[in-house]
Specification:
Distance between the termini: 101 Å
Number of strands: 2
Order of helices and strands: EEHH
Keywords: Ribonucleoprotein, Ribosomal protein
Helix content: 25-40%
Pfam families: Ribosomal_L34e
Family: Belongs to the eukaryotic ribosomal protein eL34 family.
GO molecular function: structural constituent of ribosome
Strand content: 5-15%
GO cellular component, one term: ribonucleoprotein complex
Strand order of the largest sheet: 1-2
């Protein structure tokens, strides 16, 4: 007959936060090993791709990490991926260029009239 197992915490329900696995201890007994939730990597705010260079951890675990492990050395480091930053820079540059062109055209038309 299989050995009976008792829960080692006070939570008796089969929830996502109460996952467990049966392990055998060095003394040969079976016991529940409570598992933690799996971490997910932080995602880019624009395209929702996992950010490369940033560790995947549970939210509270980021408090113990150093700054270089939480971000990337770039503008929008731990928030946006490199491709989205590139498109943002190009877009802002083109917007500024279009404003300059618009002002130049307006000045030429004013000169003609």
């Amino acid at each position: 007959m299989a050995q009976r197992l008792t829960l080692r915490t006070r939570n008796p329900y089969n929830t996502k936060s109460n996952r467990r696995r049966v392990i055998k201890t060095p003394s040969g007994k079976l016991r529940y090993l409570h598992l933690t939730k799996l971490p997910t990597a932080p995602k880019c705010g624009d395209c929702h791709v996992a950010l490369p260079g940033v560790k995947a951890m549970r939210p509270r675990a980021y408090a113990t990490l150093s700054k270089r492990e939480k971000t990337v050395q770039r503008a929008y480091g731990g928030s946006r991926c490199a491709n989205c930053v590139r498109t943002r820079v190009i877009r802002s540059f083109l917007v500024e260029e279009s404003k300059i062109v618009k002002n130049v055209i307006k000045a030429q038309q004013a000169k003609q009239h």
